[in-house]
Amino acid sequence: MKRSITRYLTILAALLLTVGCEEEEPVILEGTGITGQSWESIIEVDEEGENISLTFTSDAAWTASSSAQGWCKILTAEGIKGESALRIKVSQNIATESRTATVTIQVEGYPMSETITVNQAPGVTEEGEGRYREINEWTYSRMASTYLWNEPIPGLALDYSTGYQAFLKSILDGVAKHDDINHDDGAYSNKFRTEYYTQIISNAPDTKAVGQETKGNGFFLLKATDIGAAVGILVDTVIPDGPADKLGVKRGHFITAVNGVDITRDNYKSVITKIYTDPLSIKINTVEWEGENRDKAVLTSAGTIDLVPETYVEPAIYKAETVELSNGKKVGYLLYMGFHADFDEQLMEVFDKFKADGIEDLVLDLRYNNGGEILSSAVLATLIAGPEHKGETLAKLTFNKTRTEAGEKAEYKIGIKETIEYPDGYLPIEDALDHSLGLDRVFVIATKATASASEIIINGLRGLDIEVNIVGTRTSGKNVGMEGFSRRFRNYDFLLYPVSFYIENAKGFRDYPEGFEPDFKLDDSSFYPGGDFGSNSDFLCNAVYGWIRTGNKPSFKSSKANVLNFVEPVADITRVDLGGSRVIYRD
Description:
This protein is of the alpha+beta class. 20% of the residues lie in helices and 33% in strands. It contains eleven helices and 34 strands. Strands 12, 24, 25, 26, 29, 30, 31 and 34 form an eight-stranded mixed beta sheet that branches. Strands 14, 15, 16, 17, 18, 19 and 33 form a seven-stranded antiparallel beta sheet that branches. Strand 27, helix 10 and strand 28 form a beta-alpha-beta unit. Helix 2 packs parallel to helix 3 (164-176), helix 6 packs parallel to helix 7 and helix 7 packs parallel to helix 10. The chain is elongated, with a radius of gyration of 36 Å. Mean pLDDT is 87; it is low at 1-6, 14-21 and 569-578.
């Protein structure tokens, strides 16, 4: 009886278990579980990219994904039942093709998903012929790694099919759109940038630098003006050993006729260009002033000269001489027009002559010196400072964030030959100690054309506590420098000079983007040249010599007759196409 009851209970339990495990039919939900959505099925985004916020109501918890998470990124990957928002970040498109991503929203319990198509326009529409694509790719690579403000470059939309000049400018303009972070890369007029310092040149630059071969008549900075009743071209500077210099043309000569035709207000524009470059005959005159009456200036013919353009090398050292002041004090005068390593040996010879002459003070005339190689600024600074300052820092270079974090740094020191471009040593810096003067002060003649390596001399010497007195006008204010890179392409040479470092002195000072203010201000740009450079008749030199002779800052009053009435405003003084503080890597 007991076994029968046990068997009965077992059968009953099995029957109950079978009934309890019977599967219920699943509920199949229709649709996607999303209502009230704020978007169309396709979203169009421009090449700049944007942040997108999509609102909707979900019947349950949801998740979202993107087929292109790299550039179409989901910021809110999940949500709960009810009113929801999906945020998407679309990055800038820097490619030449458009691109598409699919965003999927899946609501829990719903077999169907909601899909959204995101279409983004192409980043660049190519407009060039593509001839310089290889050079542009090289330019991009160098700029992305060395440009001082390189962070935004990888995100720029660039057209590699354009010309190499336009391509570089598109990089610079693109960086400038990021809060003008590269403000210090460029010269300004009335707060507007007139040019970038960063530049690329081929083997046919528009202008020539100190140390390069030039073909022409040997003039620099001609000015159109009237003197008395005559209209003509005033000669401000004659290049030493150029064609005009060899024929006796002097600073202050006044050209009144070309090829037998008098210069007038109607023809001077075409004439002034020809005087620089063309074979022609010119009528030159000397000028004498009669008191304060400029209308009674006396022009005396100095003859007619036939000019034939020649190929010559413009020197860095225009003039170097020892001047004896009226009190017997001897002063060294150096008109230095550009920092170029080819002239460093000659620079040492000049200082040997100054030392032999027993000069007590030095006047550095940098009025037209736009800069050049930092190597040569280190040579000149060593010649001035001497062994007492050996090993002290003249200039320290600071690079972009990437290079700085990698430990990259560079310094130029007094009398120390090792430099960034010459790790094994640039001997003239060390040799300059044997030719140095060991001065504790120097006088600098400066104008708005005084820039870069010239300003390194001012800032660097002040960092060594050497007194630097400036006479003239405010300097350019270029506190950045460039490294030079070269590339050969289709029988052309390309030189890229990106601004890649700030320049500090030994005290860490680099804040001079507005230039250095003169200690004695004298703007002679509107005066008739009183005499040759270095003479007491030159207004700026006269002011400096007076300061040295008396020990007091000079006072200056120009005769009204000397003030020129220019036919048109004088152009900015720009001499060197590569102007700037440059580190040049040589093979």
